[in-house]
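job 3f2a | input accepted
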Amino acid sequence: MNISGATRVYCLLGDPLHKARTPEHFNGLFAQRGIDAVMVPLEVPDGALAEAFSVLRKVKNLDGLIITMPHKAGMAGLVDELEAGGRNAGAINAARRGGDGRWRGDMFDGRGYTGALAARGVDPRGKQIHLIGAGAVARAIGFALREAGAGAFTLVDVNRSRAAALAGLLEARVADEPEKADVVVNCTPLGMKEGDALPCDPARISPAAVVSDVTTKPEITPFLSAARARGHTVTTGRDMFEAQGELIAGFFGWR
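job 3f2a | predicted structure (255 res):
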């Protein structure tokens, strides 16, 4: 990769980022498509996002941002405009600077997840869904599954008020009932760190259910490993990321 004074810059914002695959993925895409751009990681601690973005707005050769934990919800309140996915989710994972200098944001996690299901031949229409976690990713996935025709939802979160809020939006029940679900999705960070507890006991999940995790590193979390050993079809965070990659490329105009 040759970087010159004309190279356009994109940044990945989050904290921590040492396990993030995003820069290597998109820098590979730039090289493959002959795009004179580079993506670099910027670790911005929780609580410092507004200050950091106020500075980034002034960087003239910065064209876009990919946003990850813990900033997806916070960035939705800082950009100038939200696309439909960002409005529904109340969070964004991509933002671009327009020719008018205004920043527009959108959320692709949900569409990435339904794309990951499709790649495994899974149609969510009519399926019962159990979401573990009620943060920005869970909200995006829930809305995307609802739009895809999913049936009843149950969800749990350690933050009961957050769980109740998402349940109201999705017409879901706050209930720890993975055994009744056709699709079980871990939308929490559990599994990223060695020694993390499992988000759910796989023995409680129906044998025919699809089991998913949103974590990209490790790709096969202990939760997915246990589910796969029990014969479940699984989808990974990498599956979700790769399914949304072309959507994000289109958002940024990298065709």
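job 3f2a | DSSP finds nine helices and twelve strands in the chain.
job 3f2a | closed
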